[in-house]
Amino acid sequence: MMNNLRGAYTIWYRDMLRFWRDKMRLIGAVVLPLLFLFVFGSGMGSMMGALSPGVNFSQFIFPGIIGMTVLMTSFMSGVSVVWDREFGFLKEVLVAPISRASVAAGKTLGAATIAVIQGAIILCFAPLIDFSLAPATVALLLPSMFLLAVAMGSFGVLLATRIKTMEAFQAIMPMLTFPMIFLSGVFYPIEAGPVWMSVISKINPATYGTTIIRQVALRGVPGATFDLSLFGHTMSLWDNVGILAAFAAVMILLGMHSFSRQE
Questions:
Q1: Domain ranges of the chain
Q2: Cα angle vertex 238, ends 236, 240, to 5°?
Q3: Hey, which of 24, 76, 161, 240 would disulfide with 208, CB 3.0 to 4.6 Å?
Q4: For 56-86, how does the pLDDT look when each residue is reduced to its tens digit (9 = 90+)?
Q5: What is the three-class DSSP state of 229?
Q6: Which of 24-38, 128-142, 240-254 has the highest mean pLDDT?
Q7: Cβ-contact 40, 52 below 8 angstroms
Q8: pLDDT for 44
Q9: Is the dihedral of CA 243, 176, 72, 56 positive or negative?
């Protein structure tokens, strides 16, 4: 048991060291969300005005941009599994005297931790768009971001165990990432879209993560949480948490199982 915990910690620590030493990776991951927030948000905001009393477009997409940052970072972190396989490091890890489930857990936690750090950096820009965040709200946002990060990180790790080359990973991941982002309610209220788009969005697990973050961030603004409705039922915060947690649990179990079949 202790060997497995130590193994998972070592995998997590290695990914954190690689992230800390690669400053350009950090800068690149933060610049894109900020471009969406300030360029897209300012441009569209002037045309769309207030989406609800007290919430303009920039303030509406700010929680969505946080969700997008967490999603992209955690999901794309699966590339490290493919990278390690191509350079032979993964084979050395898999023959170590630890369970392969602990390797999957370490990779998932590493991806989730990095994603939360980058999402927290985006939080620092809230005053620039006149978005007020109380300490209690930030304290609730961090675990919300972590849940989304674990769900998407475990999904990315699962896919990475089935992808053999970096070229295939780079081709497949954008095809999955961008539809999940644009259909998760980052840039528009889900219920305001066409019926077919609303249905697809509610199948998308990232929708529930984005909605959780928005519900927490806008909880002090009456009528501005833009709740989801599923089968005629208005989804509460805990309903969304339950769905995302269930998805994360399934992805973690499938990722661990897939790692156990690695050669």
A1: 2-260
A2: 75
A3: 240
A4: 777 888 888 999 999 988 888 777 777 777 7
A5: strand
A6: 240-254
A7: no
A8: 63
A9: negative
Buried b (16+ CB within 10 A) or exposed e, 28-58: ebbeebbebbeeebeeebeeeeebbeebbbb
Instruction: Tell me the pLDDT tens digit for each residue of 211-240.
Output: 999 888 887 665 555 677 777 777 888 889
Q: How far apart are CA 173 and CA 259, in angstroms?
A: 19
Are 125 and 42 in contact by the 8 Å Cβ rule? The answer is no
Helix (H, G, I), strand (E, B) or coil at 248: helix
Q: Say how far apart CA 80 and CA 7 lie, in whole Å.
A: 16
